[in-house]
Amino acid sequence: MNIPRPALAESPVIVTVAPNGAYKKAADHPAVPLTAEALAQEARACLDAGAAMMHMHVRKPDGSHLLDAQAYRDALAAVRRAVGDELLVQVTSEAAGVYKAAEQMALVRELQPEAVSIGLREIAVPEIPEDELAAFLAWVAERRIMTQIILYDEGDVRRWLSLRARGLVPPGAWSVLFVLGRYSVGQTSSAYDLLPFLAAYDHSLPWAVCAFGAQENACVTT
To answer: Could you say which residues of the chain have pLDDT below 70?
Structure first.
């Protein structure tokens, strides 16, 4: 593909590595980093391989998913010792079927991370009144927390755009993540999955993509 040089200059690509997620354990792969020190070693490897950012989960001693401010502080401190400030570390508020929206938002408020990912459909739920959701988003924006809003389909895209259009999302350090194939059969992705997201999006904020399965690299290349 012949892309004009100015287009490349105006569209930097940031490579983010997500080394552990919420579910995989040592039985799935012996190298999955589950402790603070393992995450620190992984951060060094990610930086050396050319990544600019790491998406990080923390775990309980048994390896299961955890949202805990102190566990994040310990892991972030270990990573900083390994890489300094050369790698941006993004924590997650992912529910993983364990945590409720109120708990997720409380974690972000307590931790006040430099960067965080938040699933829109996990916090924009009936049990959270809209004014409470708006107050949380305003709090995040005011503190300039680099917040990546996770969107799973074009319906999520339209909902996010609607929240912004209605003034519930003030200007801040926002970006969005398009997740391809998360709810497809076998959780596999295709580059074609990106098209509905791009058609629904207004391209007003930076966007990123993640994918699953054998075509993951093709999705990212697209």
So the answer is: 1-11, 183-185
Torsion of CA 201, 194, 147, 38, to 10 degrees: 180
How far apart are the C-alpha atoms of 138 and 134, rounded to whole Å?
6
CA atoms within 13 A on the CB side of 141: 16
> What SS3 class is residue 60?
coil
pLDDT of residue 70: 98
Q: Helices 101-111 and 130-142: crossing angle, nearest 10°?
A: 20
pLDDT of residue 8: 43
CA distance linking residue 219 with residue 192, whole number of Å: 8
Between the alpha carbon of residue 217 and those of residues 14, 17, 89, 141, 198, the distances in Å are: 15, 13, 22, 32, 18
